[in-house]
Amino acid sequence: MRTLSRTGVLLGFRIRQEVLEWSGAWWFLLTLVVQAVVAPLIGLFVWSAVYPDDPAIARYYVAVVLVTLMTESFEQHTFSERIYNGTLSHELLRPQPVVVGVIGMNLAIRGWLTLLGAPIVLLTGIALQVGFDWWAVLRGTPYLVLAAVLVFLWTFLLALTAFWTDRVHAVVGFGSQLIFLFGGTAAPIGLLPDTWRRVAELLPFYGMNGLPAEIAAGTRSGGSLGYQLVWVALLTGIVMVLWRAGVRRYTAVGS
Predict the structure, then answer these.
(1) Where are the transmembrane segments (predicted)?
(2) Best CA proximity match to 223, nearest among 194, 195, 190
(3) What residue ranges of the chain have pLDDT lower than 50?
């Protein structure tokens, strides 16, 4: 309990530090916001044209934009680069888990993206006259929290490949495309052919994006939190194994 309390305090300090540091880079943060919302907005325009009389499409994609902003992760930049330039050694010598700094920066960037992207979500909703059932939005909160954890674990897992390859950006880019295709951004999962829909609902990517958006938009009354929790447990286990193997390789090389 004392260790958890100390870790929580350290995480709070790190988030505050990162929020202040990133406050001077708001132009760069705006480019990240634009990058994050482009794909969901394209999906919104395409599927709204296909189903012009279905208000659920617009509601779903507005929710996807917000979920994307609140769950974006950039560990291939914020963590992998430290492996490449050797500054990870400094983090390893600190009397705190390295992941505290990684999570602190992740949450600070997500906070800024949500704040800067909120006007886009609001204007899109007003322009399309999208209305939400706030009880459904509240019901979607735990799914959103688990989605944020899943996206972080997935991106961090792929970022750990920097211990073995210098092509981490290609690896993470491939992983992001899987989220785009099977997560519900390219198309709502319910509109996919049955075989592809069943496959998508088994993979973790649907829990990273489409599931919380569907719950918040009210197009799905409920889902299985257990499905997301199983993937959280599985990805956490894989991350821990890769982290230990990666640090052993890193220290053996003498970086």
Answers:
(1) 24-50, 56-74, 112-137, 143-164, 171-192, 225-243
(2) 190
(3) none
